[in-house]
Amino acid sequence: MLVARYLLTGFVLALAFVHFAALTMIQPPSCPPECICLSQTQVLCNSGGLREIPVKLLPSTVEHLSLTRNHFPIIKSDAFAGLRYLRKLSLDGNNISIIKPFAFRGLPRLRDLSIQQTPLATVAQFAFAGLQNITSIYLSHNKIKKVEGYAFAGTSNLKLLVLTNNPIIKIESNAFSGLTNVERLNFPSGVRVLEPDAFNGLDTVGFLKLAFMDLPSLKEGTFRGLTNVGVLSIQESDLGVIESDAFDGLTFISNLYILNNKIDGIQELNLTQEQRIGYLKLQGNHILEIPRAETLNIGVDKLTVIANHFPCDCHIHSLLEGPLANGSLLEFISKNYCISPLEVNGRPMSDIDIDSIGRCQEEVTRGNLEASKDSTSMCCKMKPQLSILLCSFVAVFGNLR
Questions:
Q1: What is the pTM of this model?
Q2: Which residues form the signal peptide (predicted)?
Q3: What are the Cα distances from residue 23, in Å, to 18, 37, 152, 283, 400?
Q4: Domain hosting residue 390, numbered range
């Protein structure tokens, strides 16, 4: 009887221990008092008055974390270390002014990051570096004025980067280096400085739109290193002067659109066959100075030049004889317009008498010099007894002209 009692007591104690252990296992971990832990994977810390990120109090298994409308002026390096299962993070509505380098290091599963409605003014070097598996970063409605070089280094799987509704003035060299598979990259209006190599290292982009910029010039090397782009659209902007080699190093572009811009002048437009640009579309631009034909090299698979406005002055002959006319003079003059002189502003080129417009003096002089060179070259190939007299005559006659 005594043995049975001991056995029963032991069984009851064992059962109580198992019950206690089960309760302990299902009991959720501690939760920051300012937060609501909906589960071990979803935590809301919104409008909680937090001044520091409570990483040590959060469940290590959290996957969705919302920290909106708190007071985090600085996101420090490795600010979320230990939250290795985090997939979605929102920091909207905070007073973030600085993001330190490698702030989000140690988050190998992070896919979606949102930092919007903050006073953040600079996307600093390496701020978003090392986010190897992130697919979306939302940075709209901040105060961002500058994107520094290598800000996104190593974020190789980013698909969507949204920078709209920011007063971005300057994009530094190599700002997007490391982004190697972006489907869409959205910029805000008002960009005033694109440094050379601004897009260097930006590889494989589905759609890249640059609109409403106010540039003094499109500098040499602006697009150097930009490659494998589905659509590059430069539109509704003041481009100033397109400098020589502005498009140098731009390769494998399926569609290059230059739409509805004001262009003061084109020093050189050099798009070689080796750059593999499929389609160039020049539409709706106001070009204030006609480029010389020899400054244009357009080796693209398909070219469309329509609804543009050019000066209808003595340089028009150079335009119509150059590559922009695309071998179809009648189509070109019927689909493009005059911007000057004032009396023909807005009229199709086909409405004016082009033959009545005299050639510019430098074109006439250059033509005479070329003709003189050709004549000299031809006569000097004749028999020696005739060539001396004839070459002397051509030289004297050419000088007199």
A1: 0.79
A2: 1-16
A3: 9, 18, 45, 71, 109
A4: 365-395
